[in-house]
């Protein structure tokens, strides 16, 4: 669990866009087809980022045990292959660097089977920014 909860939350649209661009730059550099922005996936990501801040946890699983597949299903989003990356960082640059330098997170970012992405970036003020990347085919 996190040592804090944060209820004063705002969507950081600029960081969402920067993270999306970063992911596609990394894919293009390696000859992998860029991902398409999906607003419904973004809403799933924003909701999870807000929930983690609001209830003071940092996990792919909610306190009720729901994972990204459950969140997509609850949102009525059809998929056969999904992934999720999480980051809590002071800014989008540090979040991007942390994700691309972590083998498991990099695998999601560069997976050619993924076709769509949503990025939910929530600004928690002094507690930093919570990022949830949601990937599907």
Automatic annotation (TrEMBL):
<protein>
    <recommendedName>
        <fullName>SCP domain-containing protein</fullName>
    </recommendedName>
</protein>
<dbReference type="InterPro" id="IPR035940">
    <property type="entry name" value="CAP_sf"/>
</dbReference>
<feature type="domain" description="SCP">
    <location>
        <begin position="21"/>
        <end position="135"/>
    </location>
</feature>
<dbReference type="InterPro" id="IPR014044">
    <property type="entry name" value="CAP_dom"/>
</dbReference>
<dbReference type="Pfam" id="PF00188">
    <property type="entry name" value="CAP"/>
</dbReference>
């Amino acid at each position: 669990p996190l040592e804090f909860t944060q209820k004063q939350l705002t969507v950081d649209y600029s960081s969402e866009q920067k993270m999306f661009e970063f992911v596609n730059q990394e894919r293009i550099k390696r000859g992998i087809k860029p991902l398409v922005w999906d607003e419904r996936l973004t809403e799933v990501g924003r909701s999870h980022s807000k929930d983690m801040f609001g209830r003071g946890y940092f996990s792919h699983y909610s306190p009720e045990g729901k994972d990204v597949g459950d969140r997509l299903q609850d949102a009525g989003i059809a998929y056969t292959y999904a992934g999720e990356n999480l980051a809590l960082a002071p800014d989008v640059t540090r979040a991007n660097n942390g994700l691309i330098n972590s083998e498991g997170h990099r695998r999601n970012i560069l997976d050619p089977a993924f076709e769509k992405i949503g990025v939910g970036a929530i600004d928690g003020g002094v507690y930093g920014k919570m990022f949830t990347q949601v990937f599907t085919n």
